[in-house]
Amino acid sequence: MRRILVMGSSGSGKSTFARRLSDMTGIPFVSLDALYWKPGWVASDNSEFEHRVAEAARQPRWVMDGNYTRSGAGELRRQASDTVIWFDLPRSTCMFGIMMRIAKSYGRVRPEMAEGCPEKIDLEFFRYVWTYRRRQRPKLLDFFEGLRPEQSLVCFTDRFQANDYLEDLALERNRASIH
Questions:
Q1: 28: number of Cβ within 10 Å
Q2: pTM (2 decimals)?
Q3: CA distance 101 to 106
Q4: What is the pLDDT of residues 64-118, one digit of tens each?
Q5: Domain range for residue 66?
Q6: What is d(CA 89, CA 16) in angstroms, rounded to the nearest whole number?
Q7: Domain with 26 in it: what CATH number?
Q8: Is residue 179 part of a domain?
Q9: Is the residue at 45 inside a domain?
Q10: Distances from the Cα of 6 to the Cαs of 15, 17, 41, 88, 177, in angstroms?
Q11: Across all residues in the chain, what is the average pLDDT?
Q12: Which of 25, 42, 96, 174 gets the most CB atoms within 10 Å of its CB?
């Protein structure tokens, strides 16, 4: 694993997982939200965002957190990646995740966000997460159809699977360092 996409609904735990994976492996962490948003929650225009993503995707190694499949940036990332980790969690888990995130981080900028974008209560964002499985999940399934046979797709349907994955990876790395 050298270029890893971590995808799924907001609130699923993908950013936390991606940062932990990055810390464990030493592979640099890239947040698409940090590349997309400007201070004050101002969206980047498509060409600016695609340029930033292309620059990040050219790097030899990364753990890239986020979806953003609708632009050319999605195709570029899919082509460059060797592994895709997908958080396909229930709506209730994701809604609980964003509520906990807001409670813990309200008014502060989270590590994976762009400067000047503090955590806030946003009803449109709640709606996005609430409708994610119906509206966004089919787009991800289409995105995954374009994966090449040599690319790995790992799917988690609960957070325990993600934690087990990281624990297994840590054990594997420890065994390898002993030998």
A1: 13
A2: 0.94
A3: 8
A4: 999 998 778 899 999 999 999 999 999 999 999 999 999 999 999 999 999 999 9
A5: 3-169
A6: 15
A7: 3.40.50.300
A8: no
A9: yes
A10: 8, 8, 22, 11, 26
A11: 95
A12: 25
Helices assigned H by DSSP within 29-90: 32-36, 46-57, 72-80
In a domain, 50, yes or no: yes
85 contacts 157 by C-beta, under 8 angstroms = no
Q: How many domains does the chain have?
A: 1
Position 173 confidence tier, pLDDT thresholds 50, 70, 90:
confident
88 located within any domain: yes
Q: Counting every residue, how long is the chain? A: 179
Record the tokens describing residue 166, joined without a space: 């990281």
Round to whole Å and give the CA distance between 110 and 106: 9
C-alpha span between 143 and 10 (Å, rounded): 17
pLDDT digits (tens, 9 = 90+) for 111-139: 999 999 999 999 999 999 999 999 999 99
Q: How far is 50 from 75, CA to CA, in rounded Å? A: 10
